[in-house]
TrEMBL record:
The keyword Transport applies. One of its GO terms (molecular function) is siderophore uptake transmembrane transporter activity. Residues 20-117 form the TonB-dependent receptor plug domain. PROSITE patterns: TONB_DEPENDENT_REC_3 (PS52016). Transmembrane segments: none annotated. Belongs to the TonB-dependent receptor family. Keywords: Cell outer membrane, Membrane, Receptor, Transmembrane, Transmembrane beta strand, Transport. It is found in: Cell outer membrane. Residues 1-23 are annotated as: Disordered. Gene3D superfamilies: TonB-dependent receptor, plug domain. It is a multi-pass membrane protein. Its main location: membrane. This is TonB-dependent siderophore receptor. It comes from Aliarcobacter vitoriensis.
Amino acid sequence: KENSYTRTQDNSATGMNLSLKETPQSVSVITSKRMEDQQLNNINDVLRNIPGVTVESETSDTGSAQIWSRGYQIKNIQIDGAMSSSNHSYEKGNESIDSAIYDSISIVRGATGLLTG
């Protein structure tokens, strides 16, 4: 578990453990400490706290939502570095995905984020 709101290194954009300053893309990281302190209990709560990301929740009780960043719908996600079939599993029921199981959640912007998640 993280004991800080910030991270000095992240490998989500390039696969290499670079400092955020050395990373050639814009990366937003929400640490477990911040998730716990701000009571961000599910993935939608976390995503709503990332600048430039919009979460459009459905009005039904399915817990599904559409995620948007910079005008593009986010359909590609990675969980622990592996591509996920997010088109269906993530959009249907992401209210129920508990954020407590993650050390951090990273959003990568730019070409890498658009193509790989």
